[in-house]
């Protein structure tokens, strides 16, 4: 009789256990390691300072140049479209390191008339017909390292820094006007282009969706140093009296984007 009771208890216990819900195992944390590629959309702010020096005509006694050499801002903002690719290595449960390259296009352009540092030129009377200048930035790119901290298994806060490139164009235009004109001869303009190399730093936040999609918001600052360029060197109308000048343009950018990438 005792043996039968024990058998019945064992059968009842098994049935009761079968009716209890099974506790789900915790899902494995997503891995950030691997290659990825994506596209971005945002804006680029160009922060340019233009300074003018070595102004000719070479003024004689009694002339003055009260603002020559002064700097002025020639800033602009434009929409930026780009793409990026890189590789992440999850080096611990909390840290991710990687490398990334990106390329973007924006049409930043701003013209100022007259150029900074020419207001107040005087030769018997204040000079008129002063030259105008413009600064334009087009494509940019960078190659950077990244280091990020996982505030949750699917959310990464990161910093980034490395080398940057920027296509920069400087233009100047001189229009002859009646009177005591700075510009001589026929109207003339010059444009010079250069691919500038500088450095960039920034950071952002990235969120993994479904294990393969990476959504981010990103900001970067870049500095491309100072470009020195002489304009109208061949446009003189007499020894020591022409309309040449030298521009010193310090170029910096601020770039903010949102991006979506696929992790392979």
Number of distinct helices? 1
Q: Radius of gyration, rounded?
A: 32 Å
**CATH fold node name:** Porin
Question: What percent of residues are in strands?
Answer: over 45%
Terminus-to-terminus distance: 66 Å
Q: Write down the overall mean pLDDT.
A: 86
Topology:
Elements: H1 2-19, E1 34-53, E2 71-73, E3 76-90, E4 95-112, E5 132-152, E6 155-174, E7 188-209, E8 213-231, E9 245-263
Antiparallel strand pairs: 1-2, 1-3, 1-9, 3-4, 4-5, 5-6, 6-7, 7-8, 8-9
Short description:
By secondary structure, this protein is mainly beta. Helix content is 7%, strand content 59%.
What does this structure look like?
With 264 residues, the chain is mainly β. The chain has one domain: Porin. Helices cover 7% and strands 59% of the residues. It is built from 1 helix and 9 strands. The chain has an 8-stranded antiparallel beta barrel. The longest helix has 18 residues, at 2-19. It is rod-shaped. Mean pLDDT is 86; it is low at 1-13.
Short key terms for the protein model shown above:
single chain; 264 residues; mainly beta; Porin; eight-stranded antiparallel barrel; 1 helix; disordered N terminus
């Amino acid at each position: 009789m005792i043996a039968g009771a024990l058998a019945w208890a064992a059968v009842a216990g098994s049935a009761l256990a079968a009716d209890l819900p099974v506790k789900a195992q915790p899902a494995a944390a997503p891995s950030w390691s691997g290659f990825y590629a994506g596209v971005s959309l945002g804006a680029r702010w160009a922060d340019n300072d233009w300074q003018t020096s070595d102004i000719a005509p070479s003024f004689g006694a009694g002339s003055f140049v009260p603002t020559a050499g002064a700097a002025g801002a020639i800033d602009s903002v434009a929409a930026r479209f780009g793409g990026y690719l890189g590789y992440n290595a999850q080096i611990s449960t909390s840290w991710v390191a990687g490398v990334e390259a990106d390329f973007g296009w924006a049409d930043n352009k701003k013209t100022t008339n007259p150029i900074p540092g020419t207001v107040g030129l005087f030769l018997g009377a204040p000079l008129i017909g002063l030259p105008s200048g413009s600064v334009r930035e087009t494509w940019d790119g960078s190659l950077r390292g990244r280091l990020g901290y996982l505030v949750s298994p699917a959310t990464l806060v990161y910093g980034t820094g490395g080398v940057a490139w920027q296509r920069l164009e400087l233009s100047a235009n001189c229009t002859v006007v009646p009177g005591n004109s700075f510009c001589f001869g026929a109207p003339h303009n010059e444009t010079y282009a250069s691919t500038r190399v500088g450095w960039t730093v920034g950071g952002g936040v990235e969120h993994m969706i479904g294990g393969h999609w990476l959504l981010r918001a990103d900001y970067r600052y870049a500095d491309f140093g100072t470009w020195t360029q002489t304009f109208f060197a061949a446009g003189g109308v007499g020894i020591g009296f022409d309309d040449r000048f030298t521009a010193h343009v310090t170029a910096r950018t601020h770039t903010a984007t949102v991006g979506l990438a696929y992790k392979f």
